[in-house]
Design goal:
Layout (H helix, E strand, L loop, with lengths): L4 E5 L14 E2 L5 E8 L6 E7 L3 E6 L4 E5 L14 E6 L6 E6 L3 E6 L4 E5 L14 E6 L8
Length: 147
């Protein structure tokens, strides 16, 4: 139906319910939920991905995307580095069809067939020929033609 639910740790708002607390306390006194919690304000998601650094993102039926949770390296793609306990729109990402995330970065496949990525870029994982983090989506460079 398009709703999204998350469970697990919630120290940076990765449950997306507007809190950074939980009904439980998990390992090392981290707030958490061992059962699914509804993400605030999302009822029209088409795809969802979660990153290893405590954030998650969803592509919405409108083609836009929203992310929530940890944002230390621009993981949420909203132009800031502040964590968010509720979904925030990914800047400049429209007409998305699929989203995928790595440990501390995310990428969106656009309807045009191009890809844009944001977040940690220490090893060049954003595909923009740089190693600088980006808190907004940057276009992945096109592959050179072979043959």
């Amino acid at each position: 139906g398009g709703a999204v639910a998350c469970w697990g740790a919630n120290s940076t708002g990765q449950l997306g319910d507007g809190t950074n607390t939980g009904p439980h306390t998990c390992l090392s006194n981290v707030p958490c939920s061992s059962s699914p919690v509804n993400v605030s304000g999302i009822n029209n998601a088409t795809t969802v991905a979660s990153g290893g650094n405590g954030f998650a993102c969803a592509v919405l039926m409108t083609g836009s995307a929203a992310c929530w949770g940890s944002n230390a390296h621009g993981d949420l793609g909203n132009g800031t580095n502040a964590d968010s306990t509720t979904p925030v729109p990914v800047s400049t990402l429209a007409n998305g069809s699929v989203i995928s995330s790595g440990g501390v970065h995310a990428c969106g496949l656009l309807a045009s067939g191009t890809v844009a990525c944001w977040g940690w870029n220490y090893w060049g994982q954003l595909g923009d020929a740089a190693t600088t983090d980006s808190n907004v989506p940057v276009s992945v460079l096109a592959l050179p033609r072979v043959g």
